[in-house]
From TrEMBL, chain A:
<dbReference type="InterPro" id="IPR008995">
    <property type="entry name" value="Mo/tungstate-bd_C_term_dom"/>
</dbReference>
<keyword id="KW-1003">Cell membrane</keyword>
<feature type="domain" description="ABC transporter">
    <location>
        <begin position="29"/>
        <end position="261"/>
    </location>
</feature>
<dbReference type="Pfam" id="PF08402">
    <property type="entry name" value="TOBE_2"/>
</dbReference>
<comment type="similarity">
    <text>Belongs to the ABC transporter superfamily. Spermidine/putrescine importer (TC 3.A.1.11.1) family.</text>
</comment>
<dbReference type="InterPro" id="IPR003593">
    <property type="entry name" value="AAA+_ATPase"/>
</dbReference>
<protein>
    <recommendedName>
        <fullName>Spermidine/putrescine import ATP-binding protein PotA</fullName>
        <ecNumber>7.6.2.11</ecNumber>
    </recommendedName>
</protein>
<keyword id="KW-0547">Nucleotide-binding</keyword>
<dbReference type="InterPro" id="IPR017871">
    <property type="entry name" value="ABC_transporter-like_CS"/>
</dbReference>
UniProtKB/TrEMBL annotation, chain C:
<feature type="domain" description="ABC transmembrane type-1">
    <location>
        <begin position="65"/>
        <end position="253"/>
    </location>
</feature>
<dbReference type="GO" id="GO:0005886">
    <property type="term" value="C:plasma membrane"/>
</dbReference>
<feature type="transmembrane region" description="Helical">
    <location>
        <begin position="103"/>
        <end position="125"/>
    </location>
</feature>
<feature type="transmembrane region" description="Helical">
    <location>
        <begin position="137"/>
        <end position="160"/>
    </location>
</feature>
<protein>
    <submittedName>
        <fullName>ABC transporter permease</fullName>
    </submittedName>
</protein>
<dbReference type="GO" id="GO:0055085">
    <property type="term" value="P:transmembrane transport"/>
</dbReference>
<keyword id="KW-0813">Transport</keyword>
<comment type="similarity">
    <text>Belongs to the binding-protein-dependent transport system permease family.</text>
</comment>
<keyword id="KW-0472">Membrane</keyword>
Amino acid sequence: MTDPTTGVPSPTAAGAGAAGAPAADEGHLVLRDLVKTYPGRHGAAVRGVSLSVPRGAMLAVLGPSGCGKSTTLRMIAGLVAPSAGSVLVDGKDVTGTPAHHRDMGVVFQSYALFPHMDVAGNVAFGLEMRKVPRPERERRVTEALELVRLDHLARRRVSQLSGGQQQRVALARALVVRPTVLLLDEPLSNLDAQLRTTMREEIRRIQQETGITTVFVTHDQHEALSMADRVAVLHEGRLEQLGTPQEIYERPASRFTAEFVGRANLLPATVVAAASAGEAAAAEVEVPGIGRITAQGASPAPGEPVTVLLRPHRVVLDAHDPDGGIARGTVLTAGYTGETVAYRVRVGGSGPELDVELPSGSHRPSAPGAEVGVSWQQGAARLVPAAPRSGGDAEAADGGGPAGDRDPRGGAA
Amino acid sequence: MSAAAPGTETGSDTGSTTAPGAERPAPGRWTPGRTAAALLLPGLVALLLTYAMPLVWVARMAFNEPLPGGAIRQTLTLGTFADVLTDGHYWRVIWQTVELGALVTVFTLLLSYPLALFLARTTTRWRGLLIALAVTPLLISSVARTFGWMAILGNQGVVNKTLQSVGIIDTPLQLANNLTGVVIASTEIYMPFAILVMISGFGRLDPELERAAASLGAGRLAVLRRVVLPLTLPGVLTAGLLVFVLSLSGYVTPRLIGGGRVFVLATEIYDEAITALNWPVAAVLSMLLLVLFGLVIVVYTRLQRFVERRILGERGAAS
Amino acid sequence: MRTGPAGRAAWVALLVVLYLFLLAPIIVVLVVSFDDATFLRFPPEGFTLDAYRQVFANDDFRSAIQVSAVTASITALLAVVTGVPAALALSRVPFRGREAMESAFLSPLLVPNIVLGLALLVLFAPIPLTDTYTGLILAHLGITIPYVVRTVCASLAGADPRAEEAARTLGADTFTVARRIILPTILPGVVSGGVIAFLLSFDETVISLFVSGQNVTPLPVAVLQYVEYRSDPAVAALSVCLVVLSVVAVVFVERSLGLRRSLRSG
């Protein structure tokens, strides 16, 4: 397994974000133990989030609705006052600075354009507030509109714009003041699927052209993985994992991340022996119904229960040689989705059920009831560490339920 | 409320290094509580002066003793209440007030329901105009509208003139200066209120439901009785409450159309206060009117809860 | 409900009759106001504008129109000045007891005008504020503020609070946000509230009956007292003027905010 990097200097040890406060002072934007509690509501919305964003990087804050990601963004913007903790920009504490002195560009989910102004008026507003002289203001408004390719619509009323155009105006309005940090709250969720893909590339292009430190909040894993340099996974107000998109997907630091990002088979297992340590750590584990297999990742002591992650698309089925694989399986269901065929396979007679995804066209589809050989690519099986803070819960859920969670989101909800 | 900017706590341990020009609100300044107080203050003072204080004053007045010739003895007595409540005249007034209110409510609801049903369901592009036409009278001076009814219902009015010229009647029908006229005019005057409330309350009337019921074999009457009526009943009840309450306290129409022969609480309060200068009795009558309001609202709340339960029950049985 | 042609005709006929009933007094007043008789009759037999001339020749009516216009203008202004900040607080500032405050601001609508009129008389007479402009304006203020609060709240509910936050992140302080973002957005609601307040004050009869007198007599009171003893086309002409005033206001409110949102009872 490769260790991909995106060329962005990493301020924290990969995947260790959840373990403790990172060495925060290196980042351009740093959150230190941010907490938000709302009076009268049970539990905190955000329960101590610490992370750091390097200058010029794009961080995605990823999590299901209600995980505290929007609250975190609003605390960075100064729109919500944290109950505890601090926000640092360039090493300076801005926690007490009101929103209008923070110099952060924010793009809201609803775009929040000023309905009584035209496109240029919206974009010029921030410059007016900064008392930028008119000639320069006009030049910069034009520049910003050119950046988002809307210079031909400067005099249009915002109510006459399409969703994608409104989105671009919101982006131009936030960027024109050259903010120190750009914050995007679910920027693409109000667009239709096709436009979303275009805007994804567009936002990425603009961010790289301007080199502005950016934080965006999303519940969409594809958005997070494809746009961001680094992804912070948030769950119930806590940071589950901070890492590059590859790290988040390939080496999830918790059961929650494994299930939330991508589809996952999670199998309970018992450690037999640890193979080696360090980056190439692996262990031999016993999976009930499958047998002994090798899984990548650091493992606890022999005899301890662990969870093994198998991504559905890395499993291989062989219909010709049911006994030639790692285990023998029976196809339960097969569903054609166009690009892939999704199978559900029971391993052994009464073993765990696995979700398997094979590219359609690469194989002759198997019908339900067919016997197949089940195997997976080298290094596809991966140990998922027990959740750092709620490890006990995860283990308890493992022991009781059947092997392999059906719905990757269901278990986390 | 001490929801001071939390930055004041966290900021202090980092030396609060914000830019010198930055606006740092002093602790406690412009908290939500104080902002709200500042914004609400003018309105609250105005309401205190023009609404709360007068009500307290009139309530206090009900416990004073009226003396002959319009004088008032400042005291604390239930005597005026006792005098009013043992006087048959006032009981007749209360009865006539309730009777008028009930009649007006029934007729208003009957006449408003078809219009509201039509306006809630129609898809014509004239819908906006038709709604405005039905609701606009609400904003037109009730004196002007009552005067219009005088011109219609009077002995020389539209109705009598027309009927006489056609030869149906010889002597004019007595449509004004009595309860009949007041009921007719009040019904029209409160219809816009009822229609407005009904249209708002008919929101849950989904045409799909009617089509679904029809597709299940329900005839037109069955659809009306089993689907439309139960779903619109809460809106009708709310409209009924509003109309009843408004007509209990109506003054202009009973006075003008009643021609001094229809006595209701409102006209009685005015006459006691202005003509007889008997403020304590007028105050007692006002209190009685408020009690009547309270009773109506209690009955309405009970009825509304009953209806909601019945509808939910019917839905449960249908599934 | 699909109906046959006969049922449909009956249904349309019923609706037409109901509309006629609803608009009957207004139609009759309009027709009578152009009659050339000196007493009320129907149908009219001649056409003249004498009735309208009489209205403006009558000193009582002229001064009553003036009293009502002045009272309604000042009342509307005061209602807007006090009601708009209150609506802002109620819809945008999260403070404890907000719901109670909201009920307090709408509660004058629950008290019958006849009771409020008497109450104002009892409070104002000894000061003495009855039969003065001040008393009349104060009396009207209490019943108009709730309408302004409600229209402006409806307007604010339709405005995206995120736009205000966006302005803050762009460098606007609280005052600038209010001036540059909130006020322009809710302006239609504010104007509608003011227009409704003006109209309510201009048409207010019962409360005015208690607090007005010989010196300061607003128009509805003057008309009421006139109609009790005489009925002639002059009153009809005056009524038509009131109707026209209302219709103009209604059209304005409907255009800028939507009538139903402004008048919804509650």
